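Worked problem 6 (solution included).
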Amino acid sequence: MGMFRKFGVLMGLAILLSACQPSPTFLEPASSISNHEANLYRIILIMALVVFVLVEGALILILVRDRKRANNEKLPAQIHSNMRLEVTWTVIPILLVIVLFIMTVQTVNAVAAPSHLKSDLNIRVVGHRWWWEFDYPDLGIVTANELHIPKGATVQVQLESVDVIHSFWVPQLSGKTDVVPGQHNTMWLTSDQVGEYLGQCAEFCGTEHALMRFKVIVDSQQDFDAWVANQQKPAYQPQTEDEQAGYMEVTGACAACHSLDPSDLNTKKVGPNLAHLFSRSTFAGGTFDLNEENLRSWLADTQAMKPGNDMDIKILPKTRDQIISYLLNLK
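Solution. The predicted structure is:
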């Protein structure tokens, strides 16, 4: 009993801890794509449950009815053939598979990307270890970790990777699509619900795979237009002596990995575009809230916060203060 009690406690803790951080699920769809996927899943689940209950129920019934009883060595009736029964349990599974096949084909057709129109929003998603870059080539915008799209729009997405295989997944909006080096995969997104939807790399890609997160923010058309207008503005110009010193660092040593040009599509840079850094709510692959405290900790020791990331640097405290004084204005 002690072992079972311990097992129960461990299972309870696992369930409790799993509820500490909300996990996105396609069973709470916010798009027509995920809605079709969720409906197919529920139908398959119900059919599987019915089959499971019938089969296991019949099995339990037979085991109980025909169990060996004390003082009774007589064997139960031995049935060697029953054509009607055998045809039944052969035909029913075939019919179920045919029904599932038809529903699956209908779902695949329903979630297939629509024909490309001029009105579509084109986005290039680039996977890095361990963060996501989002490029809007038609709008001249490059950002990271937070993907903005307008409500009701058809979003055509091109997927690329600069290092290893990743997988782009926003459960409430669409299914998974692999992001493969040297290969351009495509998918599409849409949503009729304004809100924020969590995404995650769904292909193991190294040490910090679990911390390669992002958000898709579905805006009203008015809010999206305002966001675009802000992102298209040039980066903030320094006003104070400390800001000027920080700006010189960001455009000097930091420029090897980062850019202050909001339209710089150079994916060879290993770090995200900083032109409007503080218009975002998270950093380091959606791992940390973007605020001054976390940014200071990050610049003091990036490897302590996210081991193995490409930003392995040492910055003097005074220089760090100057850089932060400038970065805080990049909104």
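Discussion: The radius of gyration is 27 Å.
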